[in-house]
């Protein structure tokens, strides 16, 4: 392609054409790569509960219905994209509820926090209360007694937030629910084995998320 030959200036001309072609190819390849990496399909973040422990879960009925609890969670957030990072636009929060009634909200990640491509971050969340008011009602109290008799409590963790992908404008919602079955264990007692729970993410109605 880049033949040699005749005069010196012909050689220079050939060489310049070659150079132009090579630079052109590099630019085209670069643009295509950027489009593929940043404009290609995205994979949503993955959220799971790796570990959880419940050392106290008691119903307080006076003066009002409340729950006294000590609950710790190891919540992981994973960004499966291999080149695209995410940045939280709103604080990432976890809300705990029993029998559909929220009794605790925990901030997981702050606004502005970033999660690089292929990165996983583990958040260790510990909450306790001597009595946090909760609108269980009669039905909820009955459910509590029922589960209390088995020693296993069903607590749902709902994770909510908003984030943006690198170089994208759209703000994407995170709405995940993690149904947990927690065996009540005395502190210091032989630790209860917890099976990792993958949280279910709500499908986004925005095709850019
Ligand atoms: C619960 O947490 C409180 C304060 O963090 C601590 O004083 C108490 O011993 C804990 N109780 C249980 C049963 O883990
Ligand atoms: C829950 O169970 C414990 C013992 O397993 C018992 O001491 C406690 O009174 C029960 N609480 C309620 C509200 O039934």
From TrEMBL:
It is found in: Membrane. GO terms for cellular component: plasma membrane; plasmodesma. The chain crosses the membrane at residues 15-38. One of its GO terms (biological process) is defense response to other organism. The keyword Translocase does not apply. InterPro entries: NDR1-like. Keywords: Membrane, Transmembrane, Transmembrane helix. This is Late embryogenesis abundant protein LEA-2 subgroup domain-containing protein.
């Amino acid at each position: 392609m880049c033949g040699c030959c005749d005069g010196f200036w012909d050689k220079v001309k050939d060489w310049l054409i070659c150079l132009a072609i090579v630079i052109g190819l590099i630019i085209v390849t670069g643009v295509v790569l950027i489009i593929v990496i940043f404009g290609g399909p995205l994979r949503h973040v993955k959220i799971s509960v790796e570990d959880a422990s419940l050392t106290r879960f008691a119903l307080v009925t006076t003066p009002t219905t409340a729950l006294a609890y000590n609950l710790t969670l190891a919540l992981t957030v994973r960004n499966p994209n291999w080149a695209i990072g995410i940045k939280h636009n709103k604080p990432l929060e976890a809300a705990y509820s029993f029998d559909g009634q929220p009794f605790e909200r925990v901030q997981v990640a702050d606004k502005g926090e970033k999660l690089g491509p292929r990165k996983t971050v583990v958040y260790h969340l510990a909450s306790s209360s001597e009595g946090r008011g909760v609108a269980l009602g009669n039905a909820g109290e009955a459910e509590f007694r029922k589960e209390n008799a088995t020693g296993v409590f069903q607590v749902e963790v709902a994770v909510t937030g908003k984030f943006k992908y690198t170089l994208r404008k759209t703000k994407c919602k995170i709405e995940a629910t993690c149904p947990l079955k927690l065996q009540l264990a005395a502190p210091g007692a032989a630790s209860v084995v917890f099976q990792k729970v993958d949280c279910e993410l709500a499908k986004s109605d925005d095709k850019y998320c």
